[in-house]
Every structure is written in C-alpha cells, then in structure tokens.
Amino acid sequence: MRHRGSMPCLIAVVFAALAVPVAEADDAPRFEVTPTIGYRIGGRFDVQSNATDVPDTSVDVGDGATYGLDLGLYRDAQGFYELLYSHQGASLDAKTPDLDGLDVDIEYYQFGGTAFFPEAAEKVLPYLSFTLGATRFSAAGYDSETKFSGTLGAGVRVPLGAHLAAVLGLRGYLTLIDSKTEFLCVSNGGDAGCLLKASGSTFFQGEAQLGLALRF
User: Fold this and answer.
1) Secondary structure of the chain in HEC code, one letter for each residue
2) pLDDT of 45-102, one tens digit each?
3) Prediction pTM value
4) CA–CA gap between residue 131 and residue 111 (Å, rounded)
5) Alpha-carbon distance 204 to 103, whole Å?
C-alpha cells in the first residue's frame, strides 16, 4: 500500500489549534488524556479483478480489538479540541489465497473536537465528537497507503472523581478511497505488483469504545 504523506497537514492543524485560547477559569480542566480499548467491526474493499474472465468481488476486514489514545485541549467547559489515534490489527477475509488470512494494520490519525451536553442528564455527561484526518493501511512486506478520513462519535462520560471519568461510546470511521487505488503493493524487486485494486469509493468501520479520561 503506497504511502502518501499527509502527516504535515495534520501537524499544521494541531499547531493552529494550540494558538486558540483555552478555558481561563482556574478550576476548569485544561487538558486530558484518555487511553481507550474497543472492538471494531466492518471494513470492506470492493475489488476489481485483474482477469477479464473473473467477476469483481470484495475483501472483508475481520472484526477485532482496538486500542488508542485521545488527547484533549479544552476550549471551555463545554468541550475541547482533540487529537485521536486508534489502531486495529486484523486479518483479511477473501476468496483468493494471496489475500485470505493476510494480517493488516489499520491506523487512524485524527484531529477535531468534542462537545458536551450537560443539560441532558445529571449523573452522566453525553458528548458528541467529530474529527478529520487520515487512515493508514499497512502489512508486513508491502508498501503502506494513506487516505483521507473522518469519524463521528457519541457516548457518555461517567464521573469517577474530580479529575477522572469513564468514557463509553460508539464511533464510526469513514475513509475515502479512489476507485483506482491499489493496495498491498511491492514497489521494488522482481516481484513488483499489487494484490488488491479497489473499485469502491468508501471504506467504513464501526467501533464500541471504553476509555478512562484523566483531566488536568
């Protein structure tokens, strides 16, 4: 999966966000760190066959566990800017032996924000999160591929103390894929070529998450 660098754009966005004033009240949180674990489902590539006499098919990504880290910079008491990283290691489910069972890593690098709705409940704090960034697909022995993506998340926070809260949520990940994108490519050596050529335009996954937010 050929790597197309998009990290400089994400870094620029992060620095721009850091220039925005954060909460000024002395007792208000300014920053938080939230490690997360989860379970992700979905993810399908519509695949164009290289042979004219073989119909197009699809390749599914196996469901599996995830881990990640969410960093928050508070704008005010109603929400914060966030930098999100999430990783999934999974195996492909395909009808072709070259692809079936192949282990792949799917990583999301995202920047956005979370808004709270304190008036909606007394003991829990509902939230809504929206981010934009990049998805990186990689597999051992093959080139990586990076694509533009976004996420939408929602859930609740359960306070466990003045600076600690449990986070329960759901998040959807949507990645935009050019219909001519080739994945799992080898760019050097005598075996140069690609195993998968996408014919669809999107790649979607859904995830249930559990996190522990530590606020400063």
Assistant:
1) CCCCCCHHHHHHHHHHHHCCCCCCCCCCCCEEEEEEEEEEEECEEEECCCCCCCCCEEEEECCEEEEEEEEEEEEECCEEEEEEEEEEEEEEECCCCCCCCCEEEEEEEEEEEEEECHHHCCCCEEEEEEEEEEEEEECCCCCCEEEEEEEEEEEEEEECCCCEEEEEEEEEEEEECCCCCEEEEECCCCCCEEEEEECCCEEEEEEEEEEEEEEC
2) 988 765 555 556 889 999 999 999 999 999 998 999 999 999 999 999 998 888 999 9
3) 0.84
4) 5
5) 18
